[in-house]
């Protein structure tokens, strides 16, 4: 790959983004691929990372879960196999915006690759530490093959015909390189929903899809064939938060999306995510986001949003 050509396509992509808006996200012509960018620095603020691969084309972002901090940039990417709530901060300006790619995946994407590329001893992770799962959110090095694939992806993201013909194969190629990396064992666990990590990923997905369902720890533990105490401990190891804390944050994030992007009233959003009391919702929303829900407006809010 010609480094000069890669830098040019990245520069052109960033220029295209900031002509749309100072900060934002945008679907591309390639299914499951989005661009995100910003020209304004941000102090730590609440964010939900959706399941997928996160690559930065320029800049650096920092995430924090409890006391654990992770950083990624154009040389390191992130992998999430289920929604993760985190604090996020970054530096950016018009002269040097932050810009990146979000590539989503599903179980079938991984199955399709693993049926042709079974796990071998060479590609198995050799990590045997017992640190909490959220502390294994370690940015992974972007290897040369993956960068070449990203370069090709950037050349077609605005071409409808090329995206239809080549988009899926490039998407699979990037996911293939991620699966090859021994540090990304969580991707294989995501495919195997019979192991503990895969079961929790599936549970979190189900919760996110039906966020208004009543919170019942015993029922959640039963759904993954665990005792309540074992489930509680493993869930905290996985997410860094108790089930109640985690679900409350997911609800507040979903409600914010509904208010900002769907034009819902505060009461409608509160009810849609499972709150029976609007006053309780308003108190928790303001405490978490440091701003009253009613002050969120579509025209003024700028934050990363990764959803369909």
Description:
This protein has a 6-stranded antiparallel sheet with strand order 1-2-9-4-7-10, covered by helices on one side. Strand 5 (60-65) and strand 6 (68-73) form a beta hairpin. By secondary structure, the chain is of the alpha+beta class. It is globular and about 55 Å long. The protein contains 11 helices and 10 strands. Mean pLDDT is 87; it is low at 125-131 and 298-308. Helix 2 (107-114) crosses helix 5 (185-191), helix 3 packs antiparallel against helix 4 and helix 9 (243-261) crosses helix 10 (266-272).
Q: Characterize the main sheet.
A: 6 strands, antiparallel
Number of strands: 10
The total count of helices amounts to 11
What order do the helices and strands follow? HEEEEEEEEEHEHHHHHHHHH
Question: Helicity range of the residues?
Answer: 40-55%
Short summary of the structure?
This protein is of the alpha+beta class. The protein has eleven helices and ten strands.
Any chance you could write out the topology, listing elements then pairs?
Layout: H1 3-20, E1 23-27, E2 33-38, E3 42-49, E4 52-58, E5 60-65, E6 68-73, E7 76-80, E8 84-90, E9 98-103, H2 107-114, E10 140-141, H3 144-156, H4 160-180, H5 185-191, H6 196-209, H7 217-223, H8 228-239, H9 243-261, H10 266-272, H11 278-289
Antiparallel strand pairs: 1-2, 2-9, 3-8, 4-7, 4-9, 5-6, 5-8, 7-10
